[in-house]
Amino acid sequence: MRIASTVTAILTFAITILAGTVSAAPPTPTPQLTPDHVLAAQQPKTKPPAPATKKPPPVPAPPADTGAQAPPPPPERLEIDVSTNTVAVTSAFSGTEIIVFGTVINSRQPSPEAGFYDVVVLVEGHGATSIVRLKSRVGGMWINTQSVRFDNLPLYSAIASSRPLDEIAEPHVLVANVIGFGRARMFPGKHSSNVSIQELDDYKSAAIRLKEKDGLYVRSEYGVIFIGPALFRATVKLPANIPVGPLDARVYLFHEGQLLAAQKASVRLTREGVDRLVYDFAFDHPILYGLLTVTIAILAGFLASVAFRK
Amino acid sequence: MNLYLPIAEMSLNIWLLIGMGAAVGFLSGLFGVGGGFIMTPLLIFIGIPPAVAVGTGSAQIVASSLSGAVAQYRRGNVDIRMGLVLIGGGLIGTIIGVDVVRILRRLGQFDLVVALGYVAFLGIIGTLMLIESSTAIAKVQAGGKSRSRQAHAHGWLDGLPFKMRFRHSKLYTSAIPPIMIGAFVGFLAAIFGIGGGFIVVPALIYILRMPTNIVVGTALFQIVFVTAATTILQSATNQTVDLPLASMLVIGGVVGAQFGATAGERLRGEQLRFWLAALVLLVAIRVGYDLVVQPTELYSITPLVRGLE
Q1: Could you report the per-residue pLDDT of B244-273, keeping only the tens digit for each?
Q2: Strands B10-13 and B2-5, sheet pairing
Q3: Which candidate in B231, B235, B262, B290 is best for mutational testing of the A interface (most A CBs within 10 A)?
Q4: Which one of B11, B74, B300 has the shortest CB-CB distance to A94?
Q5: DSSP 3-state assignment of A195?
Q6: Digit-coded pLDDT (tens) for B154-189
């Protein structure tokens, strides 16, 4: 039902876009991500990043096939939204899916299958310090001997893209825009063991591997689908064990390795119903909550022994 | 049918949880143990965060031990006076244990200490009980008396002061050994997230020489109080008690405990001790195996959440 209504919403949206009125004159400029990200991405791949001048980067060259006489096409922009802005986590919650959809304004793509643009959709939860521990053999036993702390590691992260990330852009572009699991955020925090750079890489890939195993890091390499020359969508799975909190959705538009536009949206995961009551009670009145739990346990114990009395 | 657990932040099948509660409750009623030493590893195995497993498991032990204790009390198998002395010692031990846990966590080797402790305590007690109960069973089969109580065979215990009469247990002994046993168990309960029944039961039998049939009921009586205190403490300091999870385990646990207590009546004391010893050894071997055999995944990841560090 929810998906059906979402599809209707997308179609309505698509029709509006195709009518061409919305894209012509939006009243306010759509907010972009911080200019630094775009700057880093727009540096030509061949040029070394060494000359750190404050000069604005060159405007991306228009595609060759437009002809020398034609004026440069208007730059692309993104408009995005999420199918559900608030996901209720109730006692019946067993994971769900959200759809991130959007449209490329001033799209130069002739058809959905053209592959002119690449789109990357990221949905990330809040970050937390995580400790990655390594076991080694000591006196015949396997025990934790070394550990690395990663501060601000997202507890949940989903990446959907129109094709594999390494085909979309160069690594430095991805790193500059924090596209990829834990990319550019994984520095060893305090209380970490002394590890070499090679070992640190092992810790990083172990962290990502373990998160993927838990279903908290989700990769979907062909998960972004164009359904019109400008309209695209991506289905993102929110697993049942997702940490409850705000989620950020980020969408990046690429063409031939160049970042053209980026856009943000947010999704709220909120506890509702009985689960909210229980959670709030547990954290606001922990001692009473403990007493209540014990009381319930004691009552249940008595009831059972009365019920089974012979 | 799935249920979302707000503190554990995950969704699990209701019947799985009730079934686990019932299975552990059955053992609890049968042997007079809280079942924490099985429940905590089980909860971790199905994916509950360890801190939540320890905190919530204790709530389930309260219910199944109480249900078992009431059933035992009706059969006249609880020595209340002995239970109260054990609880007094237990509270002292719990308070010390909580502090030790904090220190161990800071040192970062809490998991190792718990695993080694499990192997050591469960291994030693399981082996001793296994040897003793098999000898007793062999004696019964040879036609001798099942158990000869040697009322005054424990010379050094008689020399201690603060003598108390435990009419129900037919004992006249110093209050110091039961307080020490209670304190030791309370200490272990706080560290390992268990009720401590598998230590109390043999201690009462072999150190205090209490009659076996009274030991089970008295141990359950004491476990109710120690685990109730632990649950409130865990909730107050760590917020790691998941009420919906505890409720499901409790529902299964109290029913299972009733069947366990009934089944226990059909078994002889030495047979009960034999099977409890086998179960304890099995858990010890399982934990020890994980320590010794190279794991397929050498890395592990733990998010630092509320109050843990």
Answers
A1: 999 999 999 888 888 888 888 787 777 887
A2: antiparallel
A3: B235
A4: B11
A5: coil
A6: 556 666 667 777 777 777 777 788 888 889 888 887
